[in-house]
Amino acid sequence: MPETIELDLDAIEAAAKAPLSFCSSDHCMCSDCSCVAANNRCWWKALNREQDNRTQAMGKIFRPSFDTGVTMKEHHYAVTVNWIGNTGEGTASYTAYQRDFNVEAPGKAPILGSADPAFRGDPERWNPEDMLLASISACHKLWYLHLCAVNNVNVLEYVDYPVGRMLEGDGQRKGHFKDAELRPQVIISSQSNLDLARRLHDDAHHECFIANSVNFPIRCSAVIKHQD
């Protein structure tokens, strides 16, 4: 693994604990933060200042560490999963109902869901296995773009073609995902460090919230090229 640049965690912790230290705007993870907390007391500004004060030698990765003794911030999520497959008989039998459902949340377009066609689902709708795979890919991508942005790797295009394998179960063992593989195709600017761009995928995997929440292996087979 490449060498990690050490940060002044005491300064960052002090910034995080200072009055009005946490940005209240929608851009608290952005270096353009302009809220009142940004006046030398915003923790994200502190990270950026610390990064700017360091000389990033080739091959080093800027990887913020938030292990400062501050309680981990908790995020809350809520959706509505609305089954719409009652054809009049409810679940009177295995074949009496449709598997269709809608995933809904205020202010967002609904996701049209169903079961995998192997389990009598609608092939034109998203199934839970699709959405799990998409969540892994999207979370990895978002972390990768973030790490590239703070390490001077300019990503111009990013398309992933992830695949996953699920074992259905055999009556004794329950069905479960066996593994997943991310296959991102990435284009970076001609001035960006290609080796660093490759290594940042490992860091994105270790930071990814979704990858850290599942119990099956995830591989990343990225293809990264410079812009023509």
Automatic annotation (TrEMBL):
<dbReference type="Pfam" id="PF02566">
    <property type="entry name" value="OsmC"/>
</dbReference>
<dbReference type="InterPro" id="IPR052707">
    <property type="entry name" value="OsmC_Ohr_Peroxiredoxin"/>
</dbReference>
<dbReference type="InterPro" id="IPR015946">
    <property type="entry name" value="KH_dom-like_a/b"/>
</dbReference>
<protein>
    <recommendedName>
        <fullName>Peroxiredoxin</fullName>
    </recommendedName>
</protein>
<dbReference type="InterPro" id="IPR036102">
    <property type="entry name" value="OsmC/Ohrsf"/>
</dbReference>
<dbReference type="InterPro" id="IPR003718">
    <property type="entry name" value="OsmC/Ohr_fam"/>
</dbReference>
